[in-house]
Amino acid sequence: MVYSLSFRLYRQCRVIHFSVIAGLATPLLLSAQLAQANEFGDCSTSLMGAGVKTSAATAACARALHPEQVSNCVTTITSSLKLDPNQVLAACSRDRQVEELASCVTTVKAVLTEANGSRVLDNCRQSVLPQRYAECVTGLVEVTPLAAGEAMTECMAAGQPPTELAPSFIPTR
User: Which of 79, 112, 125, 134 is most buried (CB neighbours < 10 A)?
Assistant: First the structure.
């Protein structure tokens, strides 16, 4: 089969375009991998800066699915509350909704300055919906004469009542 010169140039140009594009894309792919690898290092650095022990910080960052969320949670809570950073790390590491936990703690503590910080952290961590819990506590304190502790107790006991339940059994006689 005979190839013309124009066909040969066309093939070579496609190869050149491909190699140029591949050459330009390679650093982008490598930088994304480096950014993901540094995510764990940034987490450890941030946690140690907040006062967490080195062994606890490295273990928490290594186990976390999203280490930057854990470190952000710890730094946010420790900056607004004067709590032991290791206690805060334990709460942030065990919670599924890490960002909502931090938001809940800061929201409740901003409104309830007299509230016990350790109790606020524990209640926000135990709540299934931390943001809703924070709204409940702040709403009750702003509108009613309840004290901070009473409002937190009421909102924790309220939970999320089930609605539109069908009977789980059929009575027989």
Answer: 134
Q: What is the pLDDT of residues 57-72, one digit of tens each?
A: 999 999 998 899 999 9
Residue 95, classed as helix, strand or coil, is coil
The CA distance from 29 to 25, in Å, is: 6
Cα separation of 46 and 75, whole Å? 8
Residue identified by tokens 């952000």 is 72
* Cα angle 112-82-49, degrees, rounded to a multiple of 5: 135
d(CA 84, CA 88): 6
List, for residues 11-41, the tens digit of each pLDDT value. Answer: 555 555 555 555 555 555 545 554 555 888 9
Cα-to-chain-centroid distance, residue 23: 36
**Residue 167: both structure tokens together:** 């009977």
The angle at the Cα of 149, spanning 144 to 155, to the nearest 5 degrees, equals 70
